[in-house]
Amino acid sequence: MKKIAVVILNWNGKALLEQFLPSVTQSSHLATVYVADNASTDDSVAFVKAHYPDVKLINNVGNYGFAKGYNEALKQVEEEIYVLLNSDVEVTEGWLQPVLNLFESDSSIAIVQPKLLDYKDKKMFEYAGAAGGFIDKYGFPYCRGRVFETIEEDKGQYDNNMEIFWASGACFFIRKNVYRELGGLDEDFFAHQEEIDLCWRANNQNHKVYYCYQSVVYHVGGATLTSNNPHKTFLNFRNSLWMMLKNVPKGQLFPALFIRLSLDGMAGVRFLLQGQPAHLWAVLKSHFYFYLKMFRFLNKRKSKQYKKYYKVQSIVYQYFLKSGKVFEN
Description:
By secondary structure, this protein is an alpha/beta fold. Helices cover 38% and strands 22% of the residues.
């Protein structure tokens, strides 16, 4: 059995599989390639069966979203290292070996992200993960190479393997035993930021999350849910609040949440002033769901929390008031 399983979650994504599966099968000789299908109603499954007989198919019985879709599929995958790969990612020759080397160099490294560049403009970092993720005190994620809407050109400025706080779900390597130890992705999230929550829980258990610059992939981004979709706004705001409830250390939680909720209110006003009332409604709805399930998520808290979870106290303050548009070490 090969050590690595590349698992692509699919839902009605035949066009994406036609476009991107060739690069995966051609450049992933170290891995077994799987397509985990979330009960598609298009010809995705038939296409894979007809054109890629060596790709293993896993058929989920419903459209479970990202989190449950992977949790169900990975119960059937026994390779030592999982790669959760979006269907809109083009990989490059030799992309697996540097990550495998990194895992083998340190048994405490549990999660790895490659360099994530933009498929549409391959000299630019890609929004979803760029060169590795961090989070501020109030739960706002940002990356080396991407802070809010400012995305940097890749000039080699982040060409170093280093420990990060979270890895992008667009291309997410994780040891099987750690994935199962942590109980996988939180299915309440459905989609968006569940990988950050998983990394946070891994950090809580003293596992390391790393960025590997020698491995390069190209991500389209927004292929299933575009950035201007209010539902995406809702999921990001709601899930970020739920994630804080689960993971911010005791004593810091409620002050951090109070400020975060206030900042969300300011974001809602900004959406309104920009003529985007649907996004304002998405923020308001996210807060309703936050309160609705507050105690459910408080009950998910573990006894141990990662006290040093942030490098920057407020990325909002740094970005909008100090003009800190790029990552600062």
